Amino acid sequence: PEAITVQELANRMAERGGEVVKTLMKLGVMATINQTIDADTAELVVSEFGHNVQRVSDEDIEMGLQGTADTESALRPRPPVVTVMGHVDHGKTSLLDALRSTDIVAGEAGGITQHIGAYQIVVEGGSKITFIDTPGHAAFTEMRARGADVTDLVILVVAADDGIKDQTVEAINHAKAAGVPIVVAINKVDKPEADPQRVMTELLQYELVPEAMGGDIICVPVSAISREGIDDLVESLLLQAELLEFKANPDRNASGVVVEARLEQGRGSVATVLIQRGTLRVGDIFVTGSESGRVRALLNDRGDKVEQAGPSEPVEVLGLNGTPEAGDDFVVVEDDARAREVADFRAEKKRRSQLASATSGRGSLEQMMD
Ligand code: GTP
Ligand code: MG
């Protein structure tokens, strides 16, 4: 049976904690505000206050968390979210560095060496693109599992001197399973042994037919080092984005997904969150995975403090009570009580499933095969 702290019960009834303690005393139960009481006692207290008893089931707690669906008229254009995938060492991070240096706001071409998981660039004409680097982040598998709402497009990086390898194939399968369009960046064309034609031929085996061969897959020869083709790649991404018209409602409570999260000395738990809809503001109360918190500060991808972040913006969030996991959701809720309710519920659920798999060998094996 469910248990609840006195404070939590008070919150849910919108009564003062002290009043609940008093009522408990009347019922012969001595409990402080932070103590836990069982569901039957809680039910008694609730009726003493004259409220209706409503025991919520698991589904009820999660229900409505994401709010109502947006009407068409509330939707506004948002930048595309582009995830870079490919085989190890094929140049994903280098390519992102090269792409980032096209940012007219950050300026200083080539001067950026900071490697972070997600950032946004503004290109000539004012269009924005958000990029997510995948390697190193166990994130991507997690994210896909959540329905691949996270990325709009995939840049598949294939080194022209190496061709399609295991992780390239894996990336193709991920993108296909998620129904996300692929733009192929044939990288390292500056190398003498580069053979872009071979890469295009290899793609055919995976039912990716390059435009040059009569298909619809855009292939852009690039070099992250010489910067050849970088502008073409950006143009291709913008073209795709224009065709697909990505939209979101910025005027609602924010929700998004955790791209990476860590515990930092002096700063506490920090999460890089990709906002998917709504606008996140300093002071907002949120739940993320089985953690909750209140936004103490927001930093953009350049490390500058910002007051808010809208759809498709990656932002560093400070003010978490614990460290969520990459791939966890991030949802702004109305108040502390709601945030804690959901976080506690999820933490308990997690604890129980860990316990179950620890005590049942069969269960854990089945989970592993999942
Ligand atoms: P992982 O994150 O480990 O999967 O690798 P990655 O795909 O991010 O590759 P990364 O950008 O780290 O590049 C790997 C190596 O290839 C580095 O030594 C780069 O300097 C080199 N490299 C990347 N792009 C190019 C390119 O266009 N031309 C040449 N010549 N070298 C490149
Ligand atoms: Mg890398």
Protein model, in words:
- There is one protein chain.
- The protein is of the alpha+beta class.
- It contains eleven helices and 19 strands.
- A six-stranded mixed sheet has the order 5-6-4-7-8-9, with helices on both faces. A six-stranded antiparallel barrel has the order 11-12-18-15-14-19.
- Helix 7 links the parallel strand 7 and strand 8 (182-187).
- Residues 107-115, 144-148 and 362-370 have low confidence and may be disordered.
- Magnesium ion is lined by residues 92-93, 135.
- Guanosine-5'-triphosphate (GTP) binds at residues 86, 88-94, 135, 187-188, 190-191, 223-225.
What oligomeric state is this?
single chain
The helix fraction, in percent, is 25-40%
Number of strands: 19
| Distance separating the two termini | 29 Å
Biggest β-sheet, characterized?
A: 6 strands, mixed
> How many helices?
11
Mean pLDDT: 85
Order of helices and strands: EHHEHHEEHEEHEHEHEHEEEEEEEEEEHH
List the helices and strands and how they pair.
Elements: E1 3-5, H1 6-13, H2 17-26, E2 36-38, H3 39-48, H4 58-62, E3 76-77, E4 81-86, H5 92-100, E5 118-122, E6 128-133, H6 139-145, E7 153-159, H7 166-178, E8 182-187, H8 196-204, E9 219-221, H9 230-244, E10 247-248, E11 255-264, E12 268-277, E13 280-281, E14 285-288, E15 291-299, E16 305-306, E17 308-309, E18 314-320, E19 329-333, H10 336-359, H11 361-369
Helix pairs in contact: 1-2, 10-11
The structure holds guanosine-5'-triphosphate (GTP) and magnesium ion.
The site of guanosine-5'-triphosphate has 16 residues, from helix 5.
List the keywords:
370 residues; alpha+beta; 6-stranded mixed beta sheet; 6-stranded antiparallel β-barrel; binds guanosine-5'-triphosphate; binds magnesium ion
